[in-house]
Amino acid sequence: MITRAVGLVFGAAATLIGRLRYAQKFVVVGLVLLLPLGFVAAAYVELQRDQVAFSAKERDGVACLAPLAHLASRVAQARHVTVTGDGGSVVLDREISTVDAVNRRLTSILGTGDAWAGARGLIIAAQSATGPASERYEGYNAAMQSILDLIVRVGDASNLTLDPDIDSYYLMDTLQFRLPVVLDNAGRSADLAVLAASAPASARTDALIDLGLTNGVLTATRATIARAVATIMAKTADSGVRLDTGASFRRLDDAMARLTATLAAAVKDRRPGDIPADVSDAVRVAATDFAAQAATSLDRLLRVRIDGFSGRAERVELATGLAALLAAYLFVGFYLSVAWPIRRIMATLHAVAGGDLTRRVAVDTRDELSSVARALNETVARTEAATNRLAQQATHDTLTGLPNRALVLDRLEQALTRSRRDGTLMAVLFIDLDRFKPINDSLGHHTGDEVLIEIAGRLTTISRGGDTVARLAGDEFVVICPDLVVPDTATGTADLIMTDLSRPIMVGTGAAAREVTVGASVGIAFADQTGDQTPEDLVRDADVAMYQAKQRGRGRVVIFNETLRTAVELRLRTQEELRHAITGGQIRPHFQPIVDGVTASVVGFEALARWQHPARGLLGPGDFIELAEETGLIVPLGAEILAQACARTVRWQQHRPGLRVAVNVASAQLADPSFASTVAAVLAETGLEAHALSLEITETTLMADTNAAAETLRAIAALGVRLELDDFGTGYSSMTYLRRFPVQALKIDRSFVAGIGHDREDEAIVEMILNLAQVLDLRVVAEGVETADQLARLRRLGCPLMQGFYFGRPMPAEQIDDFLRAPQPILS
């Protein structure tokens, strides 16, 4: 039937080709082979030419960016002279003329004529302004911003932002984005220092804040440039680019280090007058030189790339022509020398292409054609062997030789069908190794492979003759146990597996030999007789039971049942409901008062997350925070609580100035690269001053990723937000964290406060923490104050701030208004 179908489909073509002479057939085949090759070659050459044009346009952008960067440097210098009033004026005519010349040459390509005309007008207006210094300063600010906008536009119009190579991309990024920011902000920092030094005391704080923010931008940009230069040094193949870029960066980095250190010291000491007026000159000169070098290096890389594209296009054109001539010559030679034998070869090839790998070709010639025939026969033989191996590999794990997921699901389908037909019991055992990851990480993957091979051998030995042992992935194995008489057979097998897998395993050889020990957690799922269960369902249920075994302490067997199914479904449902709750306004903060230790007056609140569930009512953090942390939903949830808490605090500050708010932060939030930006955005949107916000971090949160946490906390501290170390004294590294992180306050854990009055050790620890905080100039909040006696004793110890049920339980925001209107001090 298949033969007839093929004949019907291809009969017309076979009839047409059959009427051609053999030479004509060769011509047709030659055209069929050579024409696509020609089209492909032509398309490739065209692509190379497009790449040449693309890179040439990038070079035009570089030619425009270099004078713009130099102009930005000079405008920053002119702006600084406006602030200081020293040194006369800075003439920009030569720089403007240079950009004019570049613009005339490239405006038709880059389309930047109007943008340059606008920027040029602002620069000339700033130069010719004769009003007060503040107006001329703002004029130069506007001119500088127009230059920065023009630089971005040039980069976009010239394809630079789409550069495909890592080294040239980061050179572009440094030239287009980072160095202009350095030129602008370095000059601005010197300007702000002069303005802050001359500002009245009432305005000096705002000026210092602006100076600190500018220093933060310089610090962040310096780090970004350092990463970009490190990437360039690692990726570029041009030693000259590496040498020049490294030298330019070192000069700029040294200058920026001195500048940021000077600014940080002045801001910290609130003495802007200590900042020299020429503090940014070294950075400006180094950044200008770096920009010129980056433009030169980038142009050099682009020229090399263009030469490469052009060369490849020429070589492909030449090779295509030669290939066409050679192909024509060979086709004629084939016809003259192998016309008849080739038919046999083609017949064999057609048979092999049709899937018959048993066919072999036999020819009578004694020339090279016999070698072709032998090679073809060997190739077909190797293909047959490889096909057989691939069939084995498609269904078996290459490391252990056990069936893989595809085969185990197939056998499970067969076992389910047999179980339903015969009414027999069957089970699936899902096995996950305990303590395997530390072995794999510490001793290497080779040792891990040895362990897995040994585990596979032990599982095969333990299992019954009709069982199927398979490896799913990593350190996960499955055992299919069909035809069970009683369920205890499956649990007995699981117990044997745990016992046998916990025996030591010898890895390595000779002097490197050593013993390692793993264990196993086993989940068991029994097949039901409903007919609705799929192999995937059964494996999933066994996996859930195994996960429960892990949760209960590892090294145990758990059987999947309806309770587990219900728990899993509830967890999935709660996860989805929580996702909607975050965006649907169901997550709300409750606020617990923080009071002055002496007066008991309210000085702030701690915001605590609550979930107003539409069906289950008000849920505390114990009902959803752990799930949020495991699923990553803690990041948007924390952002929502932060935004609401800040907005409420701003509202309350209208009647109670000076109120503060504290918000807890999870490890996933600290690991999120955008967390510092989120905090800054919330402060900007709500209008809450940074010093009125405290972020509480526990030691557990810091331990998740101390490097990432340190970087994030430094960025947050640069905003002016206070950082508090929560549950202080309960961890092993609390003192280390005080030294490593920018902590400004401590919260004494409620477990120590609870012991005050009847546990001398707890009271001594509280007193020690208070003394330590006083020495380190840190604020202290005592948590969990619930009795008048605790309040009295904490007052005697000199605790400045307190929090607990004695002063008030966490309340919704609506109740805080009445709470704040109550007479002060507020005591329960």
Structural features, described:
- The chain has 828 residues and is α/β, with parallel strands linked by helices.
- Helices cover 66% and strands 12% of the residues.
- It has 27 helices and 17 strands.
- The strands form three sheets. It has an eight-stranded mixed beta barrel with strand order 8-9-11-12-13-14-15-16, surrounded by five helices. The protein has a five-stranded mixed β-sheet with strand order 2-3-1-6-7, sandwiched between helices.
- Helix 2 runs parallel beside helix 6 and helix 7 (201-235) packs antiparallel against helix 8.
- The longest helix has 73 residues, at 281-353.
- It starts with a helix and ends in a 7-residue tail after the last helix.
- The mean pLDDT is 84.
For this entry, give a set of tags.
828 residues, alpha/beta, eight-stranded mixed beta barrel
Shape: flat
Give the low-pLDDT segments: none
Biggest sheet, in brief? 8 strands, mixed, barrel
Number of helices: 27
Give the integer mean of the pLDDT values: 84
Quote the distance from N terminus to C terminus: 92 Å
Helix content: 55-70%
Strand content: 5-15%
Structural class: alpha/beta
Strand order of the largest sheet: 8-9-11-12-13-14-15-16
Q: What's the β-strand tally?
A: 17
Radius of gyration: 38 Å
A few lines on this structure:
The protein contains 27 helices and 17 strands. It is of the alpha/beta class and 828 residues long.
Any chance you could write out the topology, listing elements then pairs?
Elements: H1 2-18, H2 22-84, H3 93-110, H4 113-128, H5 133-157, H6 166-198, H7 201-235, H8 239-269, H9 281-353, H10 368-395, H11 405-422, E1 425-434, H12 436-443, H13 445-462, E2 468-473, E3 476-484, H14 487-501, E4 505-507, E5 514-516, E6 519-526, H15 535-551, E7 557-559, H16 562-583, E8 587-596, E9 602-613, E10 617-619, H17 625-631, H18 634-653, E11 660-664, H19 667-671, H20 675-686, E12 693-698, H21 699-704, H22 706-719, E13 722-728, H23 734-740, E14 745-748, H24 750-754, H25 760-776, E15 779-782, H26 788-797, E16 801-803, E17 811-812, H27 813-821
Parallel strand pairs: 6-7, 9-11, 11-12, 12-13, 13-14, 14-15, 15-16
Antiparallel strand pairs: 1-3, 1-6, 2-3, 4-5, 8-9, 8-16, 8-17, 9-10
